[in-house]
């Protein structure tokens, strides 16, 4: 797999949601909201963006009489997230690698 930047995951809540859901079969809305530390409307908005990209599956139902929403990453979402994380890692590695040129002297800045 070639690491690829994915603009869908460049928004903090979406990356956080993807990272959380990567290790879950299904996660309920409240769990995602609390783990990401965002409000209901923020989670709803970003869930819709992930769903529109084909990265998130949403299931609605009820527990007793209370409505519930559950999320899980699709196979495409898992692949895209994995590739984006690999891209971020390669970017981080590149930033830490020496370039071969010394930094400019303080009087040259």
UniProtKB/TrEMBL annotation:
<dbReference type="InterPro" id="IPR036388">
    <property type="entry name" value="WH-like_DNA-bd_sf"/>
</dbReference>
<protein>
    <submittedName>
        <fullName>Transcriptional regulator</fullName>
    </submittedName>
</protein>
<dbReference type="InterPro" id="IPR036390">
    <property type="entry name" value="WH_DNA-bd_sf"/>
</dbReference>
<dbReference type="Pfam" id="PF13601">
    <property type="entry name" value="HTH_34"/>
</dbReference>
<dbReference type="InterPro" id="IPR027395">
    <property type="entry name" value="WH_DNA-bd_dom"/>
</dbReference>
<feature type="domain" description="Winged helix DNA-binding">
    <location>
        <begin position="14"/>
        <end position="91"/>
    </location>
</feature>
